[in-house]
Amino acid sequence: AQLVKELEPGLNALFGLEYKNYADEHAEIFDVENSDRAFEEEVMLSGFANASVKPEGSSVNYDAAQETYSARYTHETLALAFAITEEAIEDNLYDRLASRYTKALARSMANTKQVKAANVLNNAFGTANGGDGKELCATDHPIVAGTVRNELTVAADLNETSLEQSLIDIAAMTDERGLKIAAKGVKMIIPSALQFTAERLMKSSLRTGTADNDTNAVVSMGMIPQGYAVNHYLTDTNAFFIKTDVPNGLKHFVRAPMKTAMEGDFETGNVRYKARERYSFGFSDFRGIFGSPGA
Q1: In this model, does residue 208 exceed pLDDT 90?
Q2: Greatest CA separation found in the chain?
Q3: Which run of H or of E encompasses 70?
Q4: Using an 8 Å Cβ cutoff, are 221 and 214 in contact?
Q5: 239 Cβ partners below 8 Å, 6+ apart?
Q6: What band does 234 get if pLDDT is binned at 50, 70 and 90?
Q7: pLDDT exceeding 90 applies to what percent of the chain?
Q8: 62 falls in which pLDDT band (50, 70, 90)?
Q9: Residue 133 CB-density burial (10 A; 0-12 exposed, 13-18 middle, 19+ buried)
Q10: 3-class secondary-structure state, position 207
Q11: Which of 74, 142, 191, 216 is the most exposed place for a label (fewest CB within 10 A)?
């Protein structure tokens, strides 16, 4: 009854399931690791502060290493299924439906993964879900030695000034004890609305939007070596992010890769199709990303 039009003679075309998909854009943002447990937990360690001067004849000063916070990745199971009824099979619709709707099933599963991944950045400025009790991007991440920020002090749209300031702020990042960590930006992540702005900023040899014949410093210094990546699942058209080279930042744990299965149901005569996978997206060290929500 749901597909009655497919039985009508003279049907010229069926449409709605042949759209193209965006590539696996989450792979531009997250480092992928496999998991064999119900959840994964990662712990931030604090090293030592700067060494202190020891006056002659006095005792050495001791410092204490400690754990500061932990990040937990709880895997979610995503599943979707459909059935072809016994009556549809009798009416010679099996081959037509099976080929079309197995593709639609895979498309739905892939789209769900992209949405789940992008939500980590979509919630970067408003949801306090980090191990330190802060949102992913904040100006006041608490550390043993004070605070660290991975967000512009004054929110700004993407332009030459905000991009350069972001790179300056990334270079100023410290570890839990306030020691410099020599962080660098490696890739910019943007929504589709900013792709033309990003192209001008990242590809022009001279400064953009000015009559000055100055060098585009970001390009000539190779400050963002991997360029930019467009993520079509970001919901804020003004926010932009820079992925850094700090390890253990944004992660995607794969607990069970996608599997498909089909079986016949004895009682109904239906044929059922199912797709299932289990994974998690999240972040451990907030220093792995720097962002601005836009002005």
Answers
A1: no
A2: 101
A3: strand 66-74
A4: no
A5: 121, 124, 125, 191, 291, 292, 293, 294
A6: very high
A7: 74
A8: very high
A9: exposed
A10: coil
A11: 74
Place of tokens 């009416």: 91
| Among 198, 194, 199, 172, residue whose Cα is nearest residue 183 | 172
> At residue 67, what are phi and psi to the nearest 5 degrees?
-90, 140
The pLDDT value given to residue 1: 61
Cα angle 37-38-39, degrees, rounded to a multiple of 5: 90
Place of tokens 């749209």: 157
Can you tell me the distance from the alpha carbon of 276 to that of 29, in angstroms, rounded to the nearest whole number?
Answer: 23
Closest among 291, 282, 288, 289 to 33, alpha carbons compared: 282
**In contact, 200 and 241? CB cutoff 8 Å:** no
State yes or no: pLDDT of 14 exceeds 70.
no
Q: Look up residue 62 and give its DSSP letter.
A: P
Q: How confident is the model at residue 3 (pLDDT cuts 50, 70, 90)?
A: low
- pLDDT band at residue 97 using 50, 70 and 90 as cut-offs: confident
> Are the CB atoms for 73 and 40 separated by under 8 Å?
yes
Instruction: Measure the CA angle with vertex 181, ends 175 and 184; round to 5°.
Output: 125
* Alpha-carbon span 35 to 257, nearest angstrom: 10
Q: Pick the closest to residue 46 from 190, 145, 147 (CA basis).
A: 145
* Half-sphere exposure (Cβ direction) of 129: Cα atoms closer than 13 Å: 15
Over residues 240-271, the pLDDT tens digits come to: 999 999 999 999 999 999 999 989 988 889 89
